[in-house]
Design a protein that fits this description.
By secondary structure, the protein is an alpha/beta fold. Helices cover 61% and strands 11% of the residues. The longest helix has 41 residues.
Length: 364
């Protein structure tokens, strides 16, 4: 066992069933490597292994938002400083090769070199609940769309007697009609009866997805309104937009050190593209594209309904800017407003969580 005076920096390459860990000291010397299971016992063994090597300073984890989420939660709960690490770039892969021990070592070296500094998102509160419910809703919406497309495909190719009965119906009436059909199961070799059965199954599937989406919408609306009242008060920001921006920012507001960092996260920060005597900026194509979409749609709403925004559009148009250029400016301004509103909301949420935690401890 190494002495306690040795400063240990860990790196973890995460996978579905096992995590590969590596440890280096403050001078970059390799202290060891080991593989652990992705379970509560495996997380405890990994942390004990790192601490046996010396004084654990920090741990770099690749994939804190996916396979490494459980390990990240465990380490943070134990007071360990966790750094989010990107996967090694192509240059490193070409020179060092690709294996789990190499990737774990690269994660540790990224922390030591200071090239990895991002704080992982807090996945223990209401924002994590919103994220999971949004994933469930997105999956239900996609599945409903697939069912609707399948239903319309069968309608186009169905026998004329079936098509004639459905051709003039509105979408809601179409679903109700197909759902109520009673095909003759004895004569399913007849395309008319088979079409009716297929349409009935698809219609009932769509109705089930409608009920699921409605329930998720209500739950998400309650959660988002409770967590982000200041963000929802902004013009053009609805429940869906606020939920996405909450998920993109994470529940720990200190991980975003400035409104410029939040704009970059949302892909709304201009990127320098100058060369020689040419000085210009271009649109960022990085960042969270779903957050960028939320800002974009909020700007579209403001351009239609906000008098102040319409006046700004008219002034900038007179100055010679195109509509896409004006929208880029508006997205950057909106990112600033959203950042401060989110920080206010999340600070209030942290205060509520601290109060609830203290109350529970007093009751115990």
């Amino acid at each position: 066992m190494a002495g306690s005076s040795v400063v240990v920096i860990g790196g973890v390459d995460t996978h579905g069933h096992t995590h590969q860990a590596a440890a280096i000291d403050s001078a970059g010397r390799i202290l060891g490597g080991a593989e652990f299971e992705t379970s509560a016992e495996g997380y405890r063994e990994l942390l004990a292994w790192l601490r046996d090597l010396g004084t654990l300073e920090s741990v770099g984890i690749e994939g804190t938002g996916s396979y490494g989420a459980g390990l990240c939660r465990h380490l943070v709960a134990q007071g360990v400083r966790v750094i989010e690490v990107d996967r090694p770039d192509r240059t490193t892969r070409r020179t060092k090769g690709k294996s789990d021990p190499i990737d774990a070592e690269c994660a540790a070296r990224a922390v030591l070199a200071g090239t990895a500094v991002a704080t992982p998102k807090d996945r223990t509160g209401a924002v994590e609940s919103i994220r999971m419910l949004r994933i469930a809703r997105s999956g239900a919406v996609k599945a409903r769309t697939a069912a609707v497309n399948a239903l319309r495909t069968i309608m186009v190719t169905a026998p004329e007697s079936v098509r004639a009965a459905l051709r003039t119906l509105t979408p809601s009436t179409l679903i109700d009609t197909c759902s109520a059909w009673r095909p003759d199961h004895v004569r399913l070799e007849d395309p008319v009866q088979s079409a009716k059965l297929a349409l009935r199954m698809l219609a009932r599937r769509i109705e089930a997805f409608d009920a699921e989406i409605h329930e998720l919408d209500g739950t998400l609306a309650r959660l988002v309104r409770a967590v982000a009242p200041a963000t929802l008060a902004l013009s053009g920001i609805g429940v869906d937009h606020a939920g996405q921006l909450l998920v993109s920012a994470g529940q720990n507001p200190t991980r975003l050190h400035s409104e410029a960092a939040f704009a970059r996260l949302c892909g709304a920060a201009p990127i320098p593209a100058s060369s020689g005597r040419t000085s210009r900026h271009r649109l960022s194509r990085g960042g969270d594209r779903q957050a960028n979409c939320a800002l974009h749609m909020a700007v579209v709403v403001r351009m239609r309904r906000c008098a102040r925004t319409r006046a700004y559009v008219e002034r900038r148009t007179a100055e010679g800017l195109s509509k896409p250029e004006i929208m880029r400016c508006l997205k950057r301004y909106l990112a600033r407003e959203v950042y401060h509103a989110l920080r206010a909301d999340l600070r209030g949420l942290a205060g509520v969580d601290s109060y609830i935690g203290a109350s529970r401890r007093r009751r115990r």
